Amino acid sequence: MTDGWNIVVCVKQVPDADDVSIDPETGRLNRSDAEAVMNAPDYNAVEAALELRDEVGGTVTALSMGPPNADAVLRVAVGMGADDGVLLSDPAFGGSDTWPTSLALARAAEELDADVVFGGEETTDSSTGQVPPGIAAHNGWAQLTYVEELESRPEEDKLVAKRDVEGGYERVAAELPVVVAMGFGENDPRPAGLHRKIYAETDFEPETWTAEDLGIEDEVGLAVSPTQVGGMDTADPVPREQEVVDETDELAEQIAEVL
Amino acid sequence: MSETPNYDSEYDAIVVGAGLAGSTAALTMARDGLDVIMIERGPSPGTKNVFGGVLYTPRIRELTDFDDAPKERYVAKKTYSMLSEEGDETSMSIAPSSWREEPHNNSWMVLRADFDEWFAEQAVEAGAMLVTETTVTDLIKENGEVVGVETDRPDGELRAPMVVLAEGANSLVSEAAGLKDRDDRDNVAVSVKEVRKYDREKLEDRFHIDGDAGLAAHYFGDGACGDAVGGGFLYTNKRTVSIGVVYSIEDAAHDKKTPDEVLEEFKQHPAVAPLVRGGRMVEYSAHAIPEGGPDSMPELVHDGAVIVGDAAGLVLNSGVHLEGTNMAVESGYHAGRAVADALAQGRTDEAALASYETNLRDSYVVENLEHYGWFMDTAAEEKEFLFDDLPRALGRAGDAYFKMDNTPKDEHVSEAKSHILDATGGWLGAAKKAWKFRKMLS
Ligand SMILES: Cc1cc2nc3c(=O)[nH]c(=O)nc-3n(C[C@H](O)[C@H](O)[C@H](O)COP(=O)(O)OP(=O)(O)OC[C@H]3O[C@@H](n4cnc5c(N)ncnc54)[C@H](O)[C@@H]3O)c2cc1C
Ligand SMILES: Cc1cc2nc3c(=O)[nH]c(=O)nc-3n(C[C@H](O)[C@H](O)[C@H](O)COP(=O)(O)OP(=O)(O)OC[C@H]3O[C@@H](n4cnc5c(N)ncnc54)[C@H](O)[C@@H]3O)c2cc1C
Question: SMART domains recorded for this chain (chain A) (predicted)?
């Protein structure tokens, strides 16, 4: 492959976690004052996408589903060095849970003829971690999650990942096309160059695609979302009993009793 | 990567810092049809601002729809109190009925994180570009002329015909580029401030305020900030109170107390403690403020650059007045107009920009600075009298004057007088001091 890979990176706009509070009376999340920012783990996804492009060539396209003002996160990605950005924005997407969200992103990735799709580990506002595997599932592509490091094998059309697993790591090779969820904090996201940042925030205009453009207008939105938010509760800290014992034997006895 | 355009010479002017002075300059220039870019180091304008006080708004009102601006309370009442270290308080309060009516004497308590963001937004709506999270590190000069800025970003140089330096009191860029001498230590004041949050109703009850009305309280004497030349302040916001001290850095260096100890002692003064009791601390910050007056004002105009606001030393910190916001805005406005006029003639040289300095001198800004410029010197000379002897004498005199005992009132009056005269050094001393300080309230 001489002209490199088509790399897509998924970025999501979230309320700045520092500004989100829980209203103690209603138990609801108060997001109204919160600034909208790019999901922090997505910086790692963008960085990994740019590093991969540096290695194998090709292009990086940032992709986001959200309201019209979510173009701001595409501008962040383009500022860092992504070539282009596509916004999936349509009132029809409203109320989508992770299933239709990943369907829309999957269709868009197909449309972009993606070889590799990057996502972050999870979001700071919903943190399901379901979206990247969802994209892979919808498209029947391979998936690499909790990725610490990547090694590209362009001549074999393969991507090898070092994955964090309980008690150590494993190395997995996947065939393209593949969806990669980068581990949070696994690389150092690069700062945007000054002129690139100015470009991203002024002259760059992302494309906007609707549900109809993707042919999924009947498969997204609240009605087709299998999960519903039932409500929110604040958990009060549970008072814990504390006891000091003098002898280790006594402690062992008490533990045995509980067990 | 898709091609990155080069933005050198794409903008007519670069504004360093999107505070009050910077946003005013940008707004003024953008309205005049110039392409302007503001470069701000914070994640949004105002986030790094520790100002705890009153925004003076005459010019802002002309430039914007000020009714839409995020603000806290207007100043309905000002108090000035002398505090002695022993716990005495002698105070005066002013609450003219006119302050309760629009435009409320153009004095509003604001939270700068909210206000500065909104204000920069007005410049953006007028067509200016705002780049945040970018720190200007130096100026680019060619043949002695400023031709652009260097920033902390990769590929971080940007060139433009004009640079407006609006970086605030800690003017590292202007200094690094040799446009300004480092502030003398005794020309800089240190300020520590904390913001405490209260229940709105409780706050209004405590300070006897309602609606949008608020209180601006100023404190002097060694009960306010120890042995230093300076004072304390307390401002009421909607649901918070800003409380802090401002004093000369020179004193801070000699004094063994740390700034937060000075603030802590001020908060524990019997006159202050009940006002700040309870609540929750939501913010704490320390900052430098130039207090130099007209003598420490740098050259405002250079080939290719102008300096505005605090960076230009345009702060009035006389002890009675702590004003910088109005002068920041006024200087940004005059600078913006001067830059637009110069560029209209295709010029960026010092001579073409001179109208900035002339207009500023003709405005109240420099006049005010000169009028009060002597105060800090006088205050330093008379430190012991002003900050130590006088507050104590006033406390004792008040005590004597209003004493309830079995002696006639005449004796109370003469005892009160003798306390004051002891402090001033007799009638002659009092007359001399009165003469010396006559300008303070004029
Ligand atoms: C129970 C529940 C109910 C919800 N109900 C609603 C609702 O009614 N209405 C509503 O609007 N939202 C709702 N949400 C939020 C919405 O479903 C999720 O935000 C969205 O599906 C993405 O899931 P996530 O944030 O958990 O992403 P994760 O799977 O945690 O994200 C991992 C990565 O996927 C990528 N990614 C995730 N979302 C996007 C996106 N939108 N665009 C581009 N990339 C993305 C990013 O790279 C991200 O780092 C709900 C969430 C939950 C958990
Ligand atoms: C505690 C305190 C109380 C005060 N109380 C009052 C009061 O009651 N009334 C009053 O009128 N005045 C008061 N002042 C003074 C007033 O705050 C200032 O005079 C005013 O803010 C000056 O505005 P400015 O735009 O010049 O600077 P600033 O408001 O300081 O703005 C400078 C901006 O430049 C940015 N910046 C700095 N360096 C760089 C760089 N290298 N690159 C990019 N961006 C940079 C900063 O982040 C900031 O946003 C007070 C000051 C303090 C510290």
Answer: ETF (SM00893)
Give the residue-averaged pLDDT of B9-34.
Answer: 98
Q: In this complex, do B37 and A198 lie within 8 Å of one another by their Cβ atoms?
A: yes
Q: What angle separates helix A71-80 from helix A194-201, to the nearest 10 degrees?
A: 160
Q: Which residues contact B275 (CB under 8 A, 6 or more apart)?
A: B206, B207, B217, B234, B241
ipTM of the complex: 0.84
- Say if residues B89 and B270 touch (Cβ distance below 8 Å): yes
Question: What separation in angstroms does the CA of B171 have from each of B103, B372, B393?
Answer: 33, 23, 41
Q: Say how many Å lie between the CA of residue A232 and the centre of ligand 1.
A: 17
Q: What is the pLDDT of residues A196-230, one digit of tens each?
A: 999 999 999 999 999 999 999 999 888 888 887 77
**Would residue B242 be called left, alpha or beta, if left means φ above 0 and alpha means ψ between -120 and 50 degrees?**
beta
**In CATH, what number does A5-226 get?**
3.40.50.620
**Residue of B1, B121, B199, B239 to mutate when probing chain A, most A C-beta within 10 A:** B1
Indicate the pLDDT class of residue B14, thresholds 50, 70 and 90: very high
Q: Which residue has the higher pLDDT, B393 or B195?
A: B195
Give the start-to-end residue ranges of the domains of chain A: 5-226
CA pair distance B60, A52, nearest whole angstrom: 50
Please answer whether residues B94 and B232 qualify as being in contact, where contact means their C-beta atoms are separated by less than 8 angstroms.
no
DSSP A122-177: --SSS----HHHHHHHHHT-EEEEEEEEEEEEGGGTEEEEEEEETTEEEEEEEESS
**For residue B379, how many other CB atoms are within 10 A of its CB?**
20
Residues of B with CB under 8 A from a CB of A: 1-2, 4-7, 37, 44, 129, 131, 134, 151, 153-158
**What domains, with CATH codes, occur in chain B?**
13-70+111-182+295-362 (3.50.50.60), 185-290 (3.30.9.90), 376-441 (no CATH)
Least confident of A113-127, A244-258, B411-425: B411-425
Q: Which residues contact B279 (CB under 8 A, 6 or more apart)?
A: B196, B197, B198, B241
For residues A105-125, give the mean pLDDT: 97
Judged against a pLDDT cut of 80, whether residue B379 lies above it is answered with no
Subunit contact A81:B44, Cβ cutoff 8 A: no
Name the token pair of B180.
């300004």
Picking from B299, B298, B317, B292, the residue whose alpha carbon sits closest to that of residue B186 is B292
Q: Which residues contact B22 (CB under 8 A, 6 or more apart)?
A: B15, B16, B38, B40, B120, B164, B166, B167, B308, B309, B332
User: Which one of B7, B9, B36, B135 makes the best mutation probe of the A interface by having the most chain A beta carbons within 10 Å?
Assistant: B7
The C-alpha angle with vertex B353 and arms to B351 and B356, in degrees rounded to 5, equals 125
pLDDT in tens, B28-64: 999 999 999 999 999 999 886 767 688 988 899 999 9
> What percent of chain A shows pLDDT beyond 70?
94
Beta-carbon separation of B157 and A194 below 8 A? yes
